[in-house]
Amino acid sequence: MSYDITWDTIPFLSIDTETTGFAKTDRICEIAIVVAQGSRILETFHSLVNPECPISSGAMAVHGITEDMVRDAPKFYEIKSKVLDLLVRDMPWVAHQMIFDARMLSYGIERSEWPLDVPTLCTLDFSKKHHPMMKLRPYHKLADIAGYCQINYDPTSGHNALNDAELLARIVPTMMRGRMVRGAYTKLSQDWLK
Question: What contacts 41, CB < 8 A, 6 or more positions away?
Answer without folding.
Answer: 34, 35, 166, 169
